[in-house]
Amino acid sequence: MKRVCFLLKVRRERLDEYRERHADVWPEMLAALSASGWHNYSLFLREDGLLVGYLETEDFAAAQEAMAATDVNARWQAEMAPFFEALDGAQPDEAMRPLTEVFHLD
């Protein structure tokens, strides 16, 4: 499994609503993530809006591609896009750029 970590920025004025949305993620979205190879997926949110995402997957590009092919992901991304800063017209899942891992304690 490959470990993937990424950063995004949630608008400060939308933090509470963002938390609420993730307290009740659509069951079909959860199923699609699992079926697409997203494992051990977590989101961490700092009070200034910095969002840190972490997941494990065999192939991140393939996992992203599999999600992009689902209708539920298109609907979810369209609803989530207004929560984020600096997407430059991309959907949130398209704006994720993995960080380079420099250390891991096994």
UniProtKB/TrEMBL annotation:
Pfam families attached to this UniProt entry: rhaM
InterPro entries for this protein: Dimeric_a/b-barrel, Rham/fucose_mutarotase
Domain of life: Bacteria
PANTHER family: L-RHAMNOSE MUTAROTASE
Name of the protein in question: L-rhamnose mutarotase
Organism: Streptomyces ochraceiscleroticus
